[in-house]
Amino acid sequence: MCDECHACCCTMPVEVWLPDLIRMGLVDEFEAEGPAKQIAKRLTQARVVDQFNHASGVFILARRANGDCIYLTRDTRRCSIYEQRPQTCRNHPQKGPRPGFCAFRPKRTDTSPAED
Ligand code: SF4
Ligand code: SF4
What is the pLDDT of residues 39-81, one digit of tens each? Predict the structure, then answer.
């Protein structure tokens, strides 16, 4: 299904946590032991992160002006860090604010739930 889609879900805000940032190679284990606020400040300045919620520890990945995730390859519409992508992206569309919802699905006749 994703092969026929233009990565609609990669234009939505993506919540990431510290373990995601480590897997993505943006934060090392040493820095991860320090204040999350400092990490957020650095990554915001580097334009990798748009927002940080200190209470929940959630970072929001930065997006381009057109809404695309910064890790989305413009021409192929593929994730450039697929093997290291955040857990939120791995879970989509099974988990999230609207479980099972895929932005592309309404255009298709097959409405059966996604398999795990
Ligand atoms: S999960 Fe849905 S919106 Fe995301 S790429 Fe696949 S078909 Fe497109
Ligand atoms: S990290 Fe990859 S899979 Fe996740 S939203 Fe960005 S481009 Fe899409």
Answer: 999 999 999 999 999 999 999 999 999 999 999 999 999 999 9
Q: Phi first, then psi: give them for residue 87, nearest 5 degrees.
A: -60, -35
Task: Judge whether 28 and 103 are in contact, CB under 8 Å.
Answer: no
Amino acid at 44: T
How far is it, in rounded angstroms, from Cα 31 to Cα 54? 16
For a mutational test of ligand 2's pocket, the pick from 8, 69, 80, 84, i.e. the residue with the most ligand atoms closer than 8 A to its C-beta, is 69
Query: What one-character DSSP code corresponds to residue 63?
Result: B
Domain boundaries, the chain: 2-107
- Cβ atoms of residues 77 and 7 within 8 Å: yes
For residue 36, is pLDDT > 80?
yes
Closest-CA residue, ligand 2 atom 2, reads: 79
What is the rounded CA–CA span in Å between residue 106 and residue 69? Answer: 22
